[in-house]
Specification:
This protein has 599 residues and is α/β, with parallel strands linked by helices. The chain folds into three domains: 53 residues, Winged helix-like DNA-binding domain superfamily/Winged helix DNA-binding domain (Arc Repressor Mutant, subunit A, Orthogonal Bundle), CATH 1.10.10; 140 residues, Up-down Bundle (Ferritin); 285 residues, Rossmann fold, CATH 3.40.50. Helix content is 47%, strand content 13%.
Length: 599
């Protein structure tokens, strides 16, 4: 790691200074040519030895990092606005320097978690202090100040309401007072160990004890503490939980973007998750299961959906499984920051199903696409493989059957799937045919490419339903709704598109209308966008589920111009293009002759 941190790239210098890579290249060009700036070539990029950078440039980089922190610490930010998250991210990202994003992610998100558990503790402690001193409070009042202190330091007073007890040396104020120390990393690791000792069980192996060994300089860790101190404890833990949750999710998204394809392993873009949840519509006391839960976004949005409907967002039973231990930690912290309780287990869902008896009302998932797996590791009698065993080269239909297996009799599943699963033949095609004939396919939504960070792979959203006549919606046993949303998106960068809130409302509203929900309006097929097909219709298409086969093409908009008039105009334009082409060809021939004569 030390060897890696010795070098810095052109792009990293540009990010720290807030200038273009071209501007950095111009400033470094002479030093790289005369050898005063040392570097090693890696592919098309140069890894520049930080120690050989000009002193002036190193000072400017340090000044830029300090200024980014000062701007956040001093500035009055409106915490209800998205700019609050952006400002915090801008400062934290400037401080990253040349640390790999995958390492920096755990450092930053771990600190955010520490801030949350500490402030939750302060909130509960202040309540106990107020109650025990209030003579009108018959349950808590204690006349003796010494005995009040005993209550305020009683761990059960915190654990009983779902709050972690935070020892004095692990509290945020203690860390903030030492933010200027060169060995602040040691204090943070000691704080994490103290919290784990005080709260055995729920936090075991969750928090990252990586700060002392981190290659980040001490002052950078200290500045991160100062930045996150801007999320102020204002005696309203619900508001702060919402703010911290927003910041945590925003940072997850930014880290996923920075890590590109790897980012998809722990983070599903928020608009996709919101659309899945909006269509499924989870209700209070529902059992929600995600066997490939990543950092927990499906659970967060399910809870948020209840909150938006003025329901109790804590009344949802959550079960999740994640095979990657570092991602599992991110999930546990993400849920804790949101105040969401649930059981999240580590393990590979193919071979080590941690929830064999769970039958959920809703399964939400974004599993790995087209992953290899080993069917030989499963028993021939594995209850999940009801419709057949998928080939080892692709686990898509293993996941799909896993989801179906974990649904309650009236359960619904919504998940992301690679488009190949819509039309693949062979063993997988036979499995898909059986699932269709069983009447389980409710809705298929084709999505635009580039929805995921740095991955252009087109995907679709599948919605499977165990019972299409369960009374929650209208009976639709022999129907499947197809939506082609490939042209519905907002371009947010050259490499990525997203669904806006309006897009989400349109697509979810179409599903609600088709299901006959109150207030959703009447459903009708719209050529090029949505259509309803029966099992017989799908069979005619070879059991292919590609929406384009069913929705057709959009109706041509009549612009009121007669065909004859259009044809005459087109003929005139075409004749003009032919004339210009002849003129250009003659000019090229003359130029070639001139070149030949000059030789």
């Amino acid at each position: 790691m030390a060897q890696t941190q010795k070098y810095i790239t052109n792009a990293e210098i540009a990010r720290i200074l807030g200038i273009s890579r071209a501007a950095v290249s111009k400033q470094l060009s002479s030093g790289l040519k005369d050898g005063t700036i040392k570097y090693i070539q890696k592919g098309k990029s140069e890894l520049i030895d930080k120690d050989t950078l000009p002193d002036g440039l190193k000072k400017r980089m340090a000044a830029a990092q300090r200024k980014a922190v000062e701007d956040v610490v001093k500035k009055r930010l409106n915490r209800t606005d998205l700019e609050f998250e952006k400002e915090l991210w801008h400062a934290a990202d400037r401080l990253r320097g040349n640390i790999d994003s995958s390492e920096y992610k755990h450092i930053v998100l771990g600190l955010l978690f520490l801030k949350y558990v500490s402030d939750s503790f302060y909130y509960r402690r202040n309540k106990l202090k107020k109650w025990t001193a209030d003579s009108k409070n018959k349950q808590y009042y204690i006349s003796s100040e010494k005995e009040r202190s005993v209550i305020m330091n009683d761990k059960d007073q915190y654990r009983g309401v779902g709050v972690f007890f935070i020892p004095e040396k692990a509290r945020w104020e203690y860390l903030q007072d030492r933010a200027g120390h060169a060995d602040i990393g040691k204090y943070i690791d000691e704080a994490i160990e103290a919290i784990e000792r005080a709260n055995p069980g729920p936090l075991k192996d969750v928090l990252p004890k990586i700060y002392t060994a981190s290659s980040l300089e001490g002052y950078v860790l200290g500045e991160l503490v100062n930045i996150f101190s801007r999320i102020r404890f204002d005696h309203d833990i619900d508001k702060e939980r919402d703010i911290l949750g927003r910041v945590y999710e925003y940072f997850l998204g930014q880290f996923a973007s920075a890590e590109g394809k790897r980012g998809g392993e722990f983070y599903s873009p928020r608009p996709i998750v919101r659309l899945l949840v909006k269509i499924l519509e989870p209700f209070e006391n529902a059992r929600v299961f995600d066997p490939s839960c990543g950092s927990g976004g499906m659970f967060v949005q399910s809870s948020q959906f209840l909150k938006e409907r003025y329901k109790d967002s804590t009344k949802v039973s959550i079960s999740g499984q994640e095979s990657n231990p570092t991602t599992w930690r991110l999930c546990k912290m993400n849920l804790a920051v949101r105040g969401i309780a649930g059981k999240i287990e580590r393990g590979n869902s193919y071979y080590d199903d941690k929830f064999p008896n769970v039958r959920a009302d809703f399964v939400l998932a974004n599993p790995p696409f087209n992953a290899e797996w080993d069917p030989a590791r499963l028993s021939d009698k594995d209850p999940r493989l009801t419709y057949g065993t998928p080939p080892s080269g692709n686990a898509n239909f293993m996941w799909i059957q896993h989801f179906l297996h974990h649904l309650a009799p009236n359960g619904m599943a919504g998940f992301v799937m690679a488009n190949g699963a819509l039309a693949v033949g062979g063993k997988e095609g036979k499995i898909r045919e059986k699932i269709i004939e069983a009447g389980l396919v409710d809705v298929i939504v084709a999505c635009p490419p580039k929805l995921f960070y740095s991955v252009a792979l087109p995907v679709s959203l599948w919605f499977l339903t165990k019972n299409k006549k369960n009374g929650r919606f209208r009976k639709r046993e022999d129907e499947t709704l197809f939506i082609d949303a490939r042209e519905i998106f907002e371009q947010i960068s050259r490499k990525q598109v997203a669904f806006t809130d309006e897009h989400i409302q349109k697509i979810a509203g179409t599903v609600r209308a088709w299901r006959g929900e109150e207030g959703a309006g009447a459903y009708k097929d719209i050529p090029g966008y949505c259509a309803v097909a029966t099992k017989k219709d799908i069979a005619k298409h070879g059991y292919v589920l590609t929406p384009g086969r069913y929705v057709g093409v959009p109706d041509e908009v009549n612009d009121g111009v007669p065909f004859e008039e259009k044809m005459e105009k087109l003929s005139t334009e075409l004749e003009q293009y032919f004339k210009e082409s002849d003129t250009l060809e003659k000019q090229i021939q003359q130029n070639i002759k001139k070149v030949g004569q000059s030789q």
